[in-house]
Amino acid sequence: MIGSIVKIHSNFYYANVEGNIIECKIREKLKKEKAEIYVGDTALLEEINYESNQAVITEILPRKNFIPRPSIANIDQVIILAALDQPSLDLMQLDRYLASIRLYNIPAIICINKSDLDDVKGMKDQISSIYEPIGYKIIFTSVIKGLGIDELKDVFDSKISVLAGASGVGKSSLLNMLNPQLKLKTNPVSAKTSRGIHSTRHVELLEISLGNDKFAQIADTPGFSNLKFDNIMPDKVQELFVEIAELSPDCYYSDCLHLEDDGCNVLVNINKIALSRYESYKIFVKEAMEFKKKITFSGQKEEKRIKILDVKDKEKIRIVKLGTKTRETSRKNQKQKLSFISSLDDAYYNGDDE
Ligand SMILES: Nc1nc2c(ncn2[C@@H]2O[C@H](COP(=O)(O)OP(=O)(O)OP(=O)(O)O)[C@@H](O)[C@H]2O)c(=O)[nH]1
Ligand SMILES: [Mg+2]
Ligand SMILES: [Zn+2]
């Protein structure tokens, strides 16, 4: 039997089989192979006990796609949620989310929640004028005033979506508004720091009836904020900015990073790029440069390490980090490593503020 993983919690995997949630463990063989299982995965289930609603996962079917933060597989789109205020709108943070989703070739839609709050800085117009011309759909919503709901329902209809964004922007509140029966936990942002307090702790794929025969699968996710481009090569960053990628083929040098004037078509056309977007681009390239420097000149071998740690609440946390080894590597090995890491599919993120 086949089920889709909707939640992972303390070594238990919850699979949805035709509307029934079945609690699963994983087959020893899969454990030995260190198989990684994510929310959104399609799993083969055996040893099904219909009385206790339990089963064993014996295989994970090939994935259509995967994003590492938040970890989820087989999705159609990501809705990046930000708040007009509380927490304050950070354009660079928005660019980080957009660029990181683009890395995985998954469509992204921008949703600005809490649009009932005072727009003292004229952010609504700013967002529209920056992101609409480069092709992003923007929806303004308010849970308090019930704004943007129909538009949001149309976007979610018949799709598997991820709702991502910093803690406190209103991800869970928005889903509760779409379907009040969900009763997801929400909390006010801290008065002291104006930041969310991580009310949602786990990714969960929810089946949501939207009324009028509309139906969606949406993943509520914990908020996070410290995405960094310390895992890709600097020349890949331009591909994550649609408006820069359009101009870059006409630069004089094919390896132009669009940071200096010398025959750079991006800089010649800099007035076509929003200032904040170019600022974000420069920062992300710098982060990627640090990464490249680290793996090229340190004379140390970098390797991707995936560690599974058992922490106090017995919940398994997947830690992906760059490790260093003092052993010298041959130039050939280093080159292979470089091309390995520079492939977009291989990118992943470091760190987590959870
Ligand atoms: N003014 C206003 N407040 C909102 C709106 N939507 C949500 N809030 C409030 O924002 C706070 C945070 O909402 P949550 O839904 O918990 O935020 P979240 O994004 O799920 O946060 P995490 O689970 O911590 O990642 C709550 O106090 C909500 O009542 C809105 O449209 N307008
Ligand atoms: Mg939440
Ligand atoms: Zn250039």
Report on this model:
The chain is an alpha/beta fold. It has three domains: 2-63, Nucleic acid-binding proteins (OB fold (Dihydrolipoamide Acetyltransferase, E2P), Beta Barrel); 67-220, Rossmann fold (3-Layer(aba) Sandwich); 234-346, Ribonucleotide Reductase Protein R1, domain 1 (Orthogonal Bundle). The protein has helices at 28-32, 91-102, 123-131, 149-156, 171-178, 234-237, 242-247, 265-268, 275-297, 331-342, and strands at 2-9, 12-17, 20-26, 42-49, 54-60, 66-68, 71-73, 77-83, 108-113, 138-140, 160-164, 204-211, 214-220, 301-310, 316-325. The longest helix has 23 residues, at 275-297. It is globular and about 70 Å long. Bound molecules: guanosine-5'-triphosphate, magnesium ion and zinc ion. Guanosine-5'-triphosphate is lined by residues 113-114, 116-117, 142-144, 167-173, 186-189, 196, 198-200, 222-223. Magnesium ion binds at residues 171-172, 199-200, 220.
By CATH, the topology of the largest domain is: Rossmann fold
Instruction: Give the CATH level 1 class of the largest domain.
Output: Alpha Beta
* First-last Cα distance: 34 Å
Order of helices and strands: EEEHEEEEEHEHEHEHEEHHHHEEH
Total of helices = 10
Sequence of strands across the biggest β-sheet: 10-9-8-11-13-12
Question: What coarse outline follows from CA principal-axis ratios?
Answer: globular
The kinds of small molecule bound in this structure are: guanosine-5'-triphosphate, magnesium ion, zinc ion
Strand content: 25-35%
The biggest sheet, with number of strands, parallel, antiparallel or mixed sense and barrel status, is:
6 strands, mixed
Q: Low-confidence stretches at least 5 residues in length (pLDDT < 50)?
A: 300-332, 334-354
Could you tell me the number of beta strands?
Answer: 15
| CATH homology superfamily of the largest domain | P-loop containing nucleotide triphosphate hydrolases
Radius of gyration based on Cα positions: 22 Å
